[in-house]
Write a structure and sequence with these properties.
By secondary structure, the protein is mostly helical. It is built from two helices and no strands.
C-alpha cells in the first residue's frame, strides 16, 4: 500500500509541475545552450576576421616602409 501511495504522490507532483511550466525548463535550457554555442561560433569567426585584418595592415605597413627605405637610397 505504501508503495502505491508514493507512486500516486510522484504522479501528482509531476502533473502539478507540468501545469506550472517547470516541465519546459529543460527545453529552455537546451535552447539557451544552442544559442550560446552559436554565439561562440560567431565570436570565433569575428576573432579570425580581426586577426586577418591585423595581419593585412601589418603587411601594408611593412610594404610602405620597404618602399620608403628604397626611395631614400
Amino acid at each position: 500500500m505504501k508503495k502505491s501511495a508514493f507512486v500516486s504522490l510522484g504522479l501528482a507532483t509531476a502533473l502539478m509541475l507540468s501545469g506550472c511550466g517547470l516541465a519546459d525548463v529543460g527545453a529552455s535550457a537546451a535552447a539557451e545552450g544552442k544559442s550560446a554555442a552559436e554565439q561562440v561560433k560567431e565570436g570565433k569567426k569575428l576573432e579570425d576576421k580581426v586577426q586577418r585584418d591585423i595581419e593585412a595592415a601589418q603587411k601594408t605597413e611593412a610594404d610602405a616602409r620597404t618602399k620608403a627605405e628604397e626611395a631614400n637610397q
